[in-house]
């Protein structure tokens, strides 16, 4: 682990950089562990582990938040509330997916913030910044192939439509690799969550658009949410600066 951390060392080299990267690198392991406890098989064979996963997510978020810089802290803080609003909209009101219970799990908004923070840290590593140009090309080709593959092979029209919108957002944001790194974390947690049956996407979104479980095009909603998130935090930051004068 030390070798990986040294090679990917956070670009700004602040005192907590190694710890931030450690949390980002542990993200996939924590995700599988936490979602496994909230899974249908775990509940069927042992007990309902939802509350344990809630506590684990809050603890992980708290430590990640604590070691982060002021800007990332603001992003994570706002993300918790913004993601909950998104859950109410996309899950409760629009019915695009359903959790294994009728209640939105407490760990979900904190999980979204952890996903975002992990992608943010990866995107700001020395390695990612050094290889920014070549990564953009590989990411663009890779995600295009991904959206087309699931669209053709799995009849996932949802991903074809929202995959195009994902690239539209990226174009407006000057193809920042930040969105790709976050998207990779999103795909991982979506695959993990649906595998453990913590949630399930409906076969036809809005009763019309065929979607896989999970649809890869879901990354668009995270990208779109990030645009709003950045605007909120930047406004918050500008108001704070103005208030100091």
TrEMBL record:
Transmembrane segments: 20-40, 75-97, 104-123, 143-170, 177-196, 216-236
Keyword annotations: Membrane, Transmembrane, Transmembrane helix
UniProt superkingdom: Bacteria
Keyword Membrane attached: yes
UniProt keyword Membrane present: yes
UniProt protein name: YhhN-like protein
Organism from which the protein derives: Flavobacterium limi
């Amino acid at each position: 682990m030390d070798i990986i951390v040294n090679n990917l060392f956070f670009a700004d080299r602040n005192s907590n950089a190694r710890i931030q990267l450690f949390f980002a690198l542990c993200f996939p392991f924590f995700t599988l562990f936490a979602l496994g406890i909230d899974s249908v098989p775990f509940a069927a064979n042992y007990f309902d582990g939802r509350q344990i996963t809630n506590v684990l997510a809050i603890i992980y978020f708290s430590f990640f938040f604590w070691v982060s810089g002021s800007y990332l802290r603001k992003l994570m803080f706002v993300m918790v509330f913004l993601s909950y609003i998104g859950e109410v909209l996309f899950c409760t009101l629009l019915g695009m997916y359903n959790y294994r219970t009728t209640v939105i799990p407490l760990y979900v908004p904190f999980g979204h913030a952890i996903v975002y923070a992990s992608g943010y840290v990866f995107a700001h590593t020395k390695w990612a910044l050094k290889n920014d140009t070549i990564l953009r090309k590989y990411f663009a080709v890779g995600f295009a192939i991904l959206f087309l593959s699931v669209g053709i092979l799995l009849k996932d029209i949802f991903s074809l439509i929202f995959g195009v919108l994902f690239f539209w957002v990226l174009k407006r944001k000057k193809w920042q690799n930040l969105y790709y790194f976050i998207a990779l974390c999103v795909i991982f947690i979506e695959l993990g969550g649906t595998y453990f049956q913590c949630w399930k996407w409906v076969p036809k979104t809005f009763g019309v658009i065929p979607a896989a479980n999970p649809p890869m095009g879901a990354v668009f909603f995270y990208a779109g949410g990030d645009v709003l998130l950045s605007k909120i935090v930047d406004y918050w930051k500008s108001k704070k600066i103005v208030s100091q004068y």
